[in-house]
């Protein structure tokens, strides 16, 4: 009986450790964010994605730190989601439709002056 219990605990321990190996951390440069509205929009948008476990956006450093499960979502998917929301993410530029929907305070300073 003790051997069976030990084997069950060992199997559950191996399964739990296999799941944590998929957790990855990604730092993304966000050169176009301007304010806390940008921060909230990106964090809210990415929290909807299956596999994203946490997202922290730092407006002063203009970067985001994303923790995600690599077996559910890729770093390219995360960058594309940020671009869809209207912001540049590393080498991925913002999609025009998403950018045009942003409020004036969240747009690039030179673009906000033109309006």
Automatic annotation (TrEMBL):
Keyword Signal (UniProt): yes
Taxonomy, superkingdom: Bacteria
Signal peptide annotation: 1-18
SUPFAM superfamilies for the chain: HMA, heavy metal-associated domain
All residue ranges annotated as the HMA domain in the record: 24-90
InterPro entries cross-referenced by the UniProt entry: HMA_dom (IPR006121), HMA_dom_sf (IPR036163)
Protein name as catalogued: HMA domain-containing protein
Species name: Flaviaesturariibacter amylovorans
